[in-house]
Amino acid sequence: MSVHQRAPRQRDTAMTAGVSSLWRPCKDLTPVALRLTARRSTTACVKRLLACGSALAGALLPGFAFAQSATPMRGFDSADVAGYAVLLGSVSAALIFAAVLLRQRNRLDVEVRELRTAFSDCQHKISRYQTLIADKNRRTVIWDGHDGKAELLGHLPAETGAPQHDPDFLAFGRWLKPHSASEVERAIEGLRLNAKSFELVVETQRGEVLEVQGKLYGGRAYAHFVALDNLRAELAELKIERNRLRSSIATFESLLDSIEQPVWQRDGDGRLVWVNQAYCDAVEASSPQQAVQEGREILGTLTREKIRASATPESPFQDTVSTAVRGARTFFDVVDVRGPAGSCGMAIDVSASETLREELGRTLKSHADTLDHLATPVAIFDAERRLQFYNQAFQQLWGLEAKFLESRPDHAELLDRLRAAHKLPEQLSWKAWKENCLSVYRALETQTDLWHLPNGQTLRVIASAHPQGGATWVFENLTEQVNLETRYNTLVQVQGETIDHLSEGVAVFGPDGRIQLSNPAFRALWGITEAQAAVGTHIRLLEAACGPSYDKPDGWKAFGKMITSFEDERPSSQGTLELYSGLVLDYAVTPLPNAQTMLTFVNMTDSVRAERALKEKNEALRKADELKNDFVQHVSYELRSPLTNIIGFTDLLKTSAIGPLNERQAEYIDHISTSSSVLLTIVNDILDLATVDAGIMQLDYSEIDLSDLLDDVSMQMTDRLQEGGVTLEIAAPAQLGHLIADRQRLKQILIKILTNAVNFAPEGSVVSMKCWRDGSDFAFSVSDTGCGMSPDLVSSAFDRFSTSAKGGKRSGPGLGLSIVQSFVNLHNGEVKIESEPGRGTTVHCRIPNASLPQLIAAAE
């Protein structure tokens, strides 16, 4: 194929491709797409067709260029070819544009017909819905979402009082009753926020009843207000009335439950159907329901029968009855009202009223008795100005006869009689003065006047009108008061002179901290002048003046805080100050009446010096006593070793190994042995006391068989009893049991007490020992029939080295009872002595049973 033949084909192919590429978008414009893209306008189609023509013209231009490069066709030049190309493109564009317009028009006609049909159907439906909604007995409120604006449809009858204007209709409180408006608002809020449907019956302010229904459809909230027909309205009114009655009954029941008077309700047969809380409390029931179920009656059977027989609807029962409430006799004012279906009653407790009435009578009588015993004359006149009460002081003041006063004279008559007896002050105008006196019955305030009587007495007359009428007259004799004031002033002067001449320093301060008075001793002790302690001087200035003598915090600074304190309770304080001058002052801060405070200072310099000297001497004595104890303890330790040797050698001399002894030698050896044993006992006692004083003695606790211990003690005391010619009688139970204690120390206690009793018991007498168990403790007493002890000796019997040779067979060092007391105290026991001169002595002792921890500690 030649070049000239290929060129037209290439132009045709390019034009076809361009038209296809531009037509494809137009072909895709289906009716559905046109509806979804909001019906694109014809202008858009025109723009596409123009674009298509431009594309055709562009497709022809390459062919023209190609033809220009090839061999030119005969009869056509370049301009002709270009013109034909433009013409052909324009014609093609016009044809395509016409075809597209025709197709688009057909589509638009179809869509218009469809839209007209759909619009007609919608109008028909809307008309039908509006016909249903526009019912005169219904109005619907629609909300779209939580915050959407309300849309209102329909109307309510005018007689309901519902506003026709939308904003006024939504203001429910303006046309619904308050409780109905609040219910509707709460229900709508629950519907819109929580999708909670509701049905209510509400009442308008005109008394009409509406039914309100709230539901949720498709995310929109609907509230339907429906005016009910006659039957439904009547039922709704009955429902509202029932709710109102229930609410009223509940309110009245709550009110009756809150009062203190028992209230009850009975059915036609007289059975309880309801009681309040006070009734429940009165019959001691746990709840009102229990009182009703169990039929607990607050009134007696006779009272209930009396009420049933006498109470009628026209004449309620009213009477005061007595009954027992919580075990106490109580009086009630009972009111019982009978109705068609039963009765109800109330009991008002009048016991307190009766008590108050009696108490008031007793109080009035007491007041009258009190006034009658007053030294101040009192007279009470009633509303008719007649004398109602007077006391003995009134009669004595005016010297009136009891018969005249008992006749209840008029006040004016009483004044005239007193004037005639020359007992009232002389007046220039008697009538005006009397009228002024009687004006108190019309006065609102108390009137006070001074009467100067002819006999020289001065009376303060206080007249006070009563709210119920009448007046009280009080005659206060000021003559004695004047005398008292005179004596008081004299007393103040005497006290001032007394204070000025006291050796103690005294200063009195007011509540503002300023000095009220001071004496010369105060100024001399603190070395200040009279001007520095003048009346009215503040304590701060006084503190500065006394600073050179003493300026420590516990001095005037502390005084200032206590004197100017605002605390309700002002405590007193005492102490001692040592001034820089060497003076030692004892001070006392004493609160006085009227918030005043008194400071007193006593010079204790000499006493303190003497006290210090005594303390130094006492300390020296204490050290000397310690030195003595140390010396005695040391000597005792030093004596024990030679004594042991002496006792050992004495025992050795008694044996046959040394050789036989003559009678005198044996007697001397016995004396040596006995004296050595006594001396060893004394040394051991001193060492025991020294050990106790040092606090290092420890008890060796063990379980002791008390019967064995008593046998051991009795056997060891045999020689001593024979030597003193005394018999020992032990009275003890067969089974004394066991005791946890230190056996050795307990044995020492028993032996020393028995030894002391044997020493003072007369020859041929009996020493009695009684033993018993006091709970777990071991108690015993030892009695002798010796000379006894005086109270002074009894009080010092346990003192160390305390001896009384009177009546004793032998005198000892006076350590036995001291050892006893020390060992008993170590056992946490008790020991005491009972004795009278000439009647012997009894020693009582109690040793407690040691605890298990003590036994374990002793074992360790």
From TrEMBL:
Pfam family for this entry, one: HisKA
InterPro entries, alphabetized: HATPase_C_sf, HATPase_dom, His_kinase_dom, HisK_dim/P_dom, HisK_dim/P_sf, PAS, PAS-like_dom_sf, Sensor_HK_Regulatory
The Histidine kinase domain, residue ranges: 634-851
Superkingdom of origin: Bacteria
Record's keyword annotation contains Ribosomal protein: no
Regions annotated as coiled coil: 228-255
Catalytic activity reported: ATP + protein L-histidine = ADP + protein N-phospho-L-histidine
Entry keyword annotation includes Coiled coil: yes
Assigned keywords, A-Z: Coiled coil, Kinase, Membrane, Phosphoprotein, Transferase, Transmembrane, Transmembrane helix, Two-component regulatory system
Stretches that traverse the bilayer: 49-69, 81-102
EC number: 2.7.13.3
GO MF: phosphorelay sensor kinase activity
PANTHER family: HISTIDINE KINASE 1 (PTHR43711:SF1), TWO-COMPONENT HISTIDINE KINASE (PTHR43711)
Protein name: histidine kinase
Source organism: Rhizobium rosettiformans
Lineage: Bacteria, Pseudomonadati, Pseudomonadota, Alphaproteobacteria, Hyphomicrobiales
